[in-house]
Amino acid sequence: MAPPELRYNGQTVVVTGAGGGLGREYAIFFGSRGANVVVNDLGGSFKGEGQGSQAADKVVETIRAAGGKAVANYDSVENGEAIIKTAIDSFGRIDVLINNAGILRDVSFKNMKQQDWDLIYKVHVKGAYKCARAAWPYFRKQKYGRLISTASAAGLFGSFGQTNYSAAKLALVGFTETLAKEGLKYNILCNVIAPIAASRMTETVMPPDVLEKLKPEWIVPLVAVLTHKQSTETGSIYEVGGGHIAKLRWERSKGAYLKTDDTLTPGAVAAKWKNVVNFDGAEHPQGPGNAMEILETASQLP
Ligand code: NAD
Description:
alpha/beta, about 40% helix, binds nicotinamide-adenine-dinucleotide
């Protein structure tokens, strides 16, 4: 038997950066499953230069031609209020926000200009914040919201020539983890994905035969599941691409305990280093270590 078709009838979904790449696929999907879609795109180059309305308009036309409901918005994500206003003015509500817009300014740290750093921060971090900030009061009031933000393997693991992008993308992990905690009692679920897919962002760095196996539409089903009303998943990080979906979590070694007196010296730390870095019996924490428990154990050392 075929699995059930997830639907979003009557819901409003805002997808930022939906004029191309992954965002376009999300928008077309939600438009085909009963949602009202706000197709936001500034329409510039992948380096964040220029702007235009064509990219968003084309996606809106595609959704409407297939019988769906969509409107375009051409604001930069830095003006999140205007994007969410388009959703409210056009459809009267917002249920799902997908923070997807992004650009690259790859350059080695040695050669990075202030503008490369600032622009990446503005689009990825400030943009995601501004859109979420504008949607949040609606989510809280209706006790329903689904938020996806887009990180990257570059943020999780580091990537040569991408200090600006890595920093911004990992910021969205912390952003999501905290919003998940704040949103929980209002049924606002927040998750973050690190996708890998063929798009204008990756077409210059990967060979065509690899890109062929990384279709952007294969990112959509995970996002669809996480944003569906039946989902209960929140505060999670996923890697997704090429037909593989995996959840990531933090790992904390059991660590070393040192007596909290004048014996806590650099030499004492060095002597216990193998405990600090030994992951045998590690835990998977959802919060910081319990300070009282740590102090208690340390104070009981012989
Ligand atoms: P893409 O360049 O095809 O799409 C990004 C879209 O965002 C573009 O249409 C662009 O016009 C739009 N955009 C850029 N700046 C904007 C702004 N200020 N306001 C509104 N729209 C803006 O790239 P993509 O690969 O589809 O990337 C989508 C997201 O996924 C990005 O956040 C990217 O960093 C992330 N990502 C992609 C990959 C990948 O393998 N493709 C890997 C990791 C992360």
